[in-house]
Amino acid sequence: MTDTRGSARRDGEAPVRHAPGTPCWVSLMVHGPDTARMFYEALFGWEFRPGPQQLGPYARALLDGCEVAGIGLLAPDRHLPVAWTPYFASVDVDRTAETVRSCGGTIGVGPLDAAEAGRLAIGSDPSGAVFGIWQASAHLGRAVTGVPGAPAWNELTTFESERVAKFYATVFGHTVRPEVSADLDYVALSVEGRPVAGIHGVGNGLPRDRGPHWTTYFTVADVDDTVDHVLHLGGQILERPHDSARGRVATVADPEGARFSLLQGPQ
């Protein structure tokens, strides 16, 4: 696990266009967007401003003036989970959507224009995990990473990594790099030699109520303090804080049940 710092904006720099295949945005569609915005504003210090409304009311979250995520209304006719969804950058969303279909995935939304911001589609891989595709125009995507409150990493939990990794490699051009371990089925997806996402195969350990799914990790200064704050704001702890090779982590859910993870890097 690593952040995608190479594609982020630094102070005084203009936003950078994300390389194709890079997770460039995360979006949360919920039944109560006003409540969700209040939760994440209190948790991460986000501010909000209106975004494209093609899929209903939608707002972009800003951290110190930099766009980091989006929250919108989940329409009743959209059969999508209440979950954080990563979007992968593409230079041609229509062509990428066709590749998704030809490789055994599905496209449930789009491709469609999001006003002047860009063009998008939402699909699922052959195992059923939902992801987005973003072709940037005026809106390049996430503008900062590696700071508290910003997305740090996206990880797919699925049955086994090899087959689904081939899907993402074909669709987005990722290089697949297995993590050498006798008891861990884990691969990193890389763009231009830089890890941008991970795939964790857990076999029968996959939760029955979830199925294969992507998880977004957000950087925090102190995981334990942030978990306490999640509880205070009406969220839940799904995996208590613990140390890992990549830092201290925890998995939580917001009041509507959207899961996400917290990452405190090594000190």
Automatic annotation (TrEMBL):
<dbReference type="Pfam" id="PF18029">
    <property type="entry name" value="Glyoxalase_6"/>
</dbReference>
<dbReference type="InterPro" id="IPR041581">
    <property type="entry name" value="Glyoxalase_6"/>
</dbReference>
<dbReference type="InterPro" id="IPR052164">
    <property type="entry name" value="Anthracycline_SecMetBiosynth"/>
</dbReference>
<protein>
    <submittedName>
        <fullName>VOC family protein</fullName>
    </submittedName>
</protein>
<dbReference type="InterPro" id="IPR037523">
    <property type="entry name" value="VOC_core"/>
</dbReference>
<feature type="domain" description="VOC">
    <location>
        <begin position="22"/>
        <end position="136"/>
    </location>
</feature>
<feature type="domain" description="VOC">
    <location>
        <begin position="150"/>
        <end position="265"/>
    </location>
</feature>
<dbReference type="InterPro" id="IPR029068">
    <property type="entry name" value="Glyas_Bleomycin-R_OHBP_Dase"/>
</dbReference>
